[in-house]
Design a protein that fits this description.
By secondary structure, the protein is mainly alpha-helical. The protein has 11 helices and 3 strands.
Length: about 200
């Protein structure tokens, strides 16, 4: 939309397509004619934010160019001039950094991590990872502490499992259950009645 000023009415007007739209008078609306255009870097940031947020999905340079509202060739040139690397390099770096974090902090397989960060070939993933970190994913994981050492367990669970188990209570209860109670009456098998009924 292009903001212009209608000198006859002294009201700002906007050209939208082929129709002429007028707005009410006001200093805020009248200043639209002097409003600066959106800098190109703003559109590039949208593409970079897309790569940061959705790197795990099957997105590519075309999707980033669409987010920036530019053609693929023009977007690639502007992105490289602004951030010092091509969009493909930025997206791949973001994925490899996330893969390195998963290798350090989880026990998932290399193939699972490859697919989790949005890559489709384990061989290409291993080659790119070695080029960036100087080690294969397996060697990189072996050079760090195992994931089990980083597991965080709530303190209440730790106390529950570290609490000493006093099993004498259960053993005493089992022994008491096997011993007849002294307060219970003796078993009457009917012999006393037979003795009372026997004549002398």
């Amino acid at each position: 939309m292009v903001c212009t000023v209608d000198r006859g009415r002294h009201r700002p007007t906007g050209v939208v397509g082929r129709s002429l739209v007028s707005w009410p008078d006001g200093p805020a609306l009248a200043s639209c004619a002097a409003r600066a255009p959106v800098p190109p870097a703003r559109h590039l940031l949208r593409a970079r934010d897309l790569a940061d947020a959705r790197y795990a999905e099957r997105i590519g340079v075309d999707d980033m160019a669409v987010a920036a509202g530019l053609s693929r060739a023009h977007f690639s040139r502007e992105f490289a001039n602004a951030f010092g690397e091509t969009p493909r390099q930025y997206l791949l770096t973001r994925r490899l950094e996330r893969a390195a974090a998963l290798l350090r902090g989880t026990d998932r397989t290399v193939a699972d991590i490859c697919y989790m960060v949005g890559l489709e070939s384990v061989g290409s993933f291993t080659t790119s990872f070695r080029r960036m970190f100087g080690q294969t994913p397996t060697a990189y994981r072996a050079a760090h502490a195992p994931a089990s050492a980083l597991a965080r367990v709530p303190a209440c669970v730790v106390r529950a499992y570290h609490r000493p188990q006093n099993r004498t209570f259960r053993e005493d209860a089992a022994d008491l259950a096997s011993v007849p109670s002294s307060s219970s009456p003796p078993a009457d098998d009917g012999r006393a009645d037979q003795q009372r009924e026997t004549p002398t």
